[in-house]
Amino acid sequence: MLQQAQTAAADTLVKETTTQTFVKDVIEESKRQPVLIDFWAPWCGPCKQLTPVLEKAVRAAKGKVKLVKMNIDEHPQIPGQMGIQSIPAVIAFVNGQPADGFMGALPESQVVAFLERLTKDRIGGEAKDLLKLADAALAEGDPAGAATLYAQLLAEDNGNVPALAGLARCYVETGALDQAKQTLAMIPDSKRGEPAVAAAQAALQLAEQVKTLGPLTELEQKVAANPLDHQARFDLALALNGKGRRLDALEQLVAIIKHDRKWKDDGARKQLVQFFDAWGPTDEATIEGRRRLSSILFA
Question: What secondary structure, in 3-state letters, does the chain show?
Answer without folding.
Answer: CHHHHHHHHHHHHEEECCCCCHHHHHHHHHHCCCEEEEEECCCCHHHHHHHHHHHHHHHHCCCCCEEEEEECCCCCHHHHHCCCCCCCEEEEEECCEEEEEEECCCCHHHHHHHHHHHHCCCCCCCHHHHHHHHHHHHHCCCHHHHHHHHHHHHHHCCCCHHHHHHHHHHHHHCCCHHHHHHHHCCCCHHHCCCHHHHHHHHHHHHHHHHHCCCCHHHHHHHHHHCCCCHHHHHHHHHHHHHCCCHHHHHHHHHHHHHHCCCCCCCHHHHHHHHHHHHHCCCCHHHHHHHHHHHHHHCC
